[in-house]
Write a structure and sequence with these properties.
Layout (H helix, E strand, L loop, with lengths): L4 H4 L5 H4 L7 H22 L1
């Protein structure tokens, strides 16, 4: 799984992205879905 997108994503804060590389694959998947749900909430607020 390529997590480099998190470094470039303006909707992902540094606090969420700086430690993605130390996660296991399972942790990464859980964090990815957490970030995705947060991004969806931000999109809803931005409307």
């Amino acid at each position: 799984m390529d997590t480099r997108i998190y470094e470039k994503s303006p909707t992902t804060s540094n606090s969420l992205s700086f430690n993605f590389y130390t996660f296991t694959e399972k942790d990464r998947e859980e964090a990815h879905s957490l970030v995705s749900s947060l991004n969806e909430k931000f999109k809803e607020k931005g409307k």
